Amino acid sequence: MRRNSLPARATSRPVVAALAAVGAVAGVLVGWSGLDTVNGCGLATERYPSATAADWVRYADVVVVGKAERERETGREELATGPYSHLLERTVELATQDTPFVSRTRSHPTVGATLDYVAPGWKLLRSDGETRVALLTGDAPRVVPGHTYILALRWDGERWVALGEGAVVPFDDQRIGRGEWCGQILDTDGFAQGERIGRSGDRGLEKTLIGQGVPALKQELDRAARKPS
Predict the structure, then answer these.
(1) Contact 44, 140 (CB under 8 A)
(2) How far is the C-alpha of 109 from the C-alpha of 126, rounded, in Å?
(3) φ and ψ of 168, to 5 deg
(4) What CA–CA distance (Å, rounded) separates 149 from 163?
(5) Cα–Cα distance for residue pair 74/19, rounded to 1 Å
(6) Nearest to 6 by CA among 78, 114, 138
(7) Which residues of 164-194 are buried (b: 16+ CB within 10 A; e: fewer)?
(8) DSSP 3-state assignment of 68?
């Protein structure tokens, strides 16, 4: 099984585009204290529809269960003004644990034992040139090393990107809704509360399957794949 590594790009290519590709919202920062649940964390950005199992099987090339192992800076863009001097691109290496869905209708690289995923990065504080402030994706995990996730990914622009905010789901202890979400560590009860408050009208896959594991996910994806498009 070969490793899918995303080629490093020249820093002249805007890092902002990479952040947008995974739904990062500049200016939304990690750092709230005393939150037991998270009532959203910024504006959600959808590259492709990502809420339902039907969205996942229609638009994703693969659905991966992966543990975030390590992160690294893979690019930066200089900012001319303001309190931050640079936007920093962050790439997370995921150890593949399972692939509940693989599209047979589009060409894409084979997922190996690991893959590189471009996740929300950082802003670099201008005043000292060293302090990094974390960026968040609206209503979705940041993807932090040490935690496990389910990700509906598409090979787009020679890189793996998430479909949208509904396509990255916390999955610590093999339970949907347990783990890191919006930069906070939640159990399934806390995640459910955040979902109810933050997106009361949402009927996303993560809400439908909260507390369940891979078998339930595969069942939903198989059912969606069998339905006429």
Answers:
(1) yes
(2) 39
(3) -130, 115
(4) 14
(5) 12
(6) 114
(7) bbbbbbbbbeebbbbbbbbbbebbbebbbeb
(8) strand
Please compute Rg for the chain using Cα positions: 17
Beta bridge partners of 154: 161
Q: How far apart are CA 159 and CA 138, in angstroms?
A: 21
* Per-residue pLDDT tens over the stretch 192-216: 555 544 444 456 788 889 999 999 9
Tens of pLDDT, residue by residue over 133-177, are 998 877 789 999 999 999 999 999 899 999 998 999 999 999 999
pLDDT tens profile 101-132: 999 888 899 999 999 999 989 999 999 999 99
Amino acid of residue 168: V
Exposed / middle / buried, residue 23 (Cβ in 10 Å: 0-12, 13-18, 19+): buried
| Runs of H (alpha helix) within 48-159 | 53-59
Contact 139, 199 (CB under 8 A): yes
Instruction: Report how far residue 54's alpha carbon sits from residue 126's, in angstroms, rounded to the nearest whole number.
Output: 44
The C-alpha torsion from 28 through 206 and 220 to 66, rounded to 10°, is 60
Residue type, 49: P
Burial of 34 (0-12, 13-18, 19+ CB in 10 A): exposed
Give the DSSP per-residue string, 7-42. PP--TTS-HHHHHHHTTEEEEEES---S-SS----S
d(CA 194, CA 181): 9
Which contiguous run of DSSP H or E holds residue 96? strand 84-102
